[in-house]
Amino acid sequence: MSASKKKNYLTGAAVLAFGGIVAKFLGMFLKLPLVRILGDFGMGLYGNAYPVYTFLLAISVIGLPVAISKMVSERISLGKYDGAYRVFKVAVTTLALIGAVCSAIMLFGAHFFISIFKWHPDTYYSILGLAFAPLCVCILSSFKGFFQGMQNMTPPSISQIVESITRVVVGLGLAVFLYKQFGVAFGAAGATFGATAGALVASLFLFLCFLKIRPRIKRQIKNQKTKSTEDVKTILKILAAIAIPITIASLVTSSMNLINSFTVSAFLQKAGFSVEEATILWGQLSQRAQTIISIPLILSSSLAASLVPTISESFVRKNTEQIRQKTFLTFKVVLMLALPCIAGLIVMASEVTTLLFGDANGANMLRLLSIGIVFTMISTTMQGILQGVGLLKVPVKNLAVGCVIKLVLNVILIQIPFLNIYGAILGTLGADFVVASLDYRAIKKFLGSTYRGLGMAFIKNLFCAAVMGIICFILKTFLAGFVGNSILTVIVIIVAAVVYFALIYITKVLNINEVRSVIGK
């Protein structure tokens, strides 16, 4: 592949981010009416099933696709197209088998999960709606990993949109139909089934994309001078060596959500709340506040997905200076994205929640939870860099520390009556801060040098975000007596974006020459 055809990591991240943001907004079209149809109790049932699902996906999806991306990228950079293709074929089969096992666990273990986590019994139907999703998502993720390894981010980006459209149409349609016919529990189950349908249709889309490029891959394999000698056993060993640490890290990350699942309901009941009240509070946190928070976090996950193959390529070529430049630029971009999101959500939490869900329930949860955006963005992107340079065990250790902190804080804080559900949020903030700090220290140690401009970039971004937040608050206060909430929120968001981008241009937060130096390589 010629240099002119290689996509730089910022472009790749932008493509993935675009697809992710569109997909997330499409997903909002599912949750917004669902909140109004099913209520917070129904959304609590809906939200209960997902941590188990994401935990199983952490086993089956996260590690191997990243390994596929890394291995395919490394082999293509060395001209070993047959090796890259063989990696993909082995990985697809492996992921399909693992996905089938995970689906079986959800299908036959639903009652066990409800019993051990002290969930409402009606959660059973929501779990069944998700039972076959792991198998479909595994197949989907194998194709995503292959395309990302080729640094072709467009098909995965489009697949996210296809998945979300299907999820909305099928999930919302079934939710409405089953709710009217059988009640809230079946309505929640119909909504969760949308995830299964979305993954299935997106898998078919990427399969068609793969069929389209396969003839070109075959030609490249035919024209390459030396053939790869790796057999299936060797590929599986390398896949396992890369995927297992990443999978463990993903398991630890998913464990943080799982910790919420088995601590929130149980310890809220110890604090004096009924199981119905606990389910409602969990629905507000998981399906309102966390849904909104997940939108800006798409940007960091897109950066991380794009970073792994491009950092791996630089690492294989032993170009440490290029890794350093990409890393420092990534830090700057993360700060530029995270800080204004925090400022905006702190000021506009009630208005945004009301606009999206019809009332302000969960707004204070959103306001407090938004502080952790910067920590999560830093840790997510730094994990991508650490994986790219082969330091696969470091994120695992750091996440394990965060998981322990999360568990301890949840157990202590949630059962305090005046903290209740906010104890879970404080636990998340504490864990995310520690993980981000440890990841930053690991990257700094690997690079062997500090970057003085980073501290100034943080100060500049913080100043721009603070000024933007103050202007938003003043504008919101002024407009409150003249326009409705929807118009007010839209106006404030538009003004905030204009103000912030004007400020970062004036303060020169991001040096255009620095961006060009990285893109040009």
Low-confidence regions: 1-9, 517-521
Alpha-carbon distance between the two ends? 14 Å
The SSE order reads HHHHHHHHHHHHHHHHH
| SSE-based structural type | mainly alpha
How many helical stretches?
17
Helix content: over 70%
Brief sketch in words of this structure:
This protein is mainly alpha-helical and 521 residues long. Helices cover 86% and strands 0% of the residues.
Task: Walk me through the structure.
There is one protein chain. This protein is mainly alpha-helical and 521 residues long. The protein has a domain at 33-230. Helices cover 86% and strands 0% of the residues. It has 17 helices and no strands. The chain has helices at 9-77, 81-108, 110-117, 123-130, 133-149, 154-182, 184-223, 232-270, 275-316, 320-357, 363-369, 373-388, 393-413, 421-447, 452-479, 485-507, 512-519. The protein is globular and about 70 Å long. It starts with 8 loop residues before the first helix and ends with a helix. Residues 1-9 and 517-521 have low confidence and may be disordered.
